């Protein structure tokens, strides 16, 4: 069985770029869903519609895969049986709601904050909540002591998020809204860590593809309900844009989850998380430099740099055996 202890050093080195790619996929999905939201109309209605499109398209693709793949069909059947028998608590399979919140926050905040600031806030939320998930034993490995590498990375990630809040609130006229927008991806990132912990426990019982499919079912359902609520709020929808790439967000979501499932068996949770964070931040800054350079200020680069220092420092501490 392939594990971080049995994987060869050559395999680990060869697959390291894939962990960066995982983070890059998250940043690309944020760009796509943010752009789709801005083209679909105004208000929460358009932002949530973009999230529904992303999650819904992913659900359609995954459902087709499950129908065509016998092993995945058996996993889904096992999931349903364990829920009926009560051996799998219902609360353990609602992690997809956090995924829905994350995708919705992409459409709500990235048009204003930019991809780089959005990702830095997400990373801060993920890093802090990961400490809580490990400490409380919500993940598949049970209770895990807070490690010095992860604590180091989390502290610098939070410092970076504070700078993002300052950057977002530099315009006095929009300070309140800017700070609120910076808070949303922070919460969404925290929810992602909870989702990963729950997913790990479910996957250990029913398998990775059934877990992924269930996440998209739950997330899409939650987003559809939220979308209906937004029709009571200000906003409007316009005709869907025709650019095909605006509808690939769900595909990047599936690629992120599928690659993570393989990489975690080779590198472990902490190493995968650190490399993925680096990939998110690097890709996000590059995207904003190309697409929206006006959204990058001095504090944006400082925040991204702090996050990367936290990642490199955490990996260095871990390599030296610091726990």
From TrEMBL:
Keyword flag Secreted: no
Source organism, top-level taxon: Bacteria
Transmembrane parts of this sequence: 12-32, 44-68, 88-108, 114-133, 145-166, 172-192, 213-232, 244-262, 269-292, 298-317
One of the record's GO cellular component terms: plasma membrane
Keywords assigned: Membrane, Transmembrane, Transmembrane helix
Name of the protein described by the UniProt record: Transporter family-2 protein
